[in-house]
Design brief:
Thiol Ester Dehydrase, Chain A, 35% strand
Length: 141
């Protein structure tokens, strides 16, 4: 087992290119915002299709879970140089995510030969924590 303590192996442009390859990520509008030794930040603009209940306007939990999964994946990809499939994931919802952009911050916490783990937090445009989670990913290479 290794714990990532140094800088990611990928450069910002290369990782953002990886993020943009997925049609699902393109539909969500996810963009790499930052890449550092502390992890990744992904920005997702709000879309009306994200609404869970008409008239109330909060974002569906599945969208939040997808953003946690994507952020965790690319926090690991920044170190491994490739995306990784999800094996398991846990999400905690802390408050409704109302209309507005969402920022996901994620960090790899374990890089193993077979399994890798990352944690992610999603904040709304006011900086409030709306959801957090942890994913386990398969290192196939």
């Amino acid at each position: 087992m290794s714990v990532p303590t140094n800088n990611p192996s990928m450069e910002f442009e290369k990782l953002d290119e990886l993020v943009q390859l997925s049609p699902f990520h393109q539909w969500l509008g996810v963009r790499l915002q930052a890449l550092s030794k502390d992890g990744v930040e992904l920005l997702m603009p709000w879309r009306s299709e994200f609404v869970s209940v008409a008239g109330i306007g909060y974002t569906h939990g599945g969208i939040l879970a997808a953003l946690i999964d994507i952020a965790g994946d690319y926090a690991i990809a920044a170190h491994l140089g490739h995306g990784v499939p999800t094996v398991d994931m846990r999400v905690d919802y802390h408050r409704p995510a109302m209309p507005g952009p969402l920022l996901a911050k994620a960090a790899a916490i374990k890089l193993g030969r077979t399994l890798c783990t990352a944690e992610a937090r999603i904040h709304d445009e006011a900086g409030l924590l709306v959801a957090s989670g942890r994913g386990v990913y398969l290192n196939r290479r």
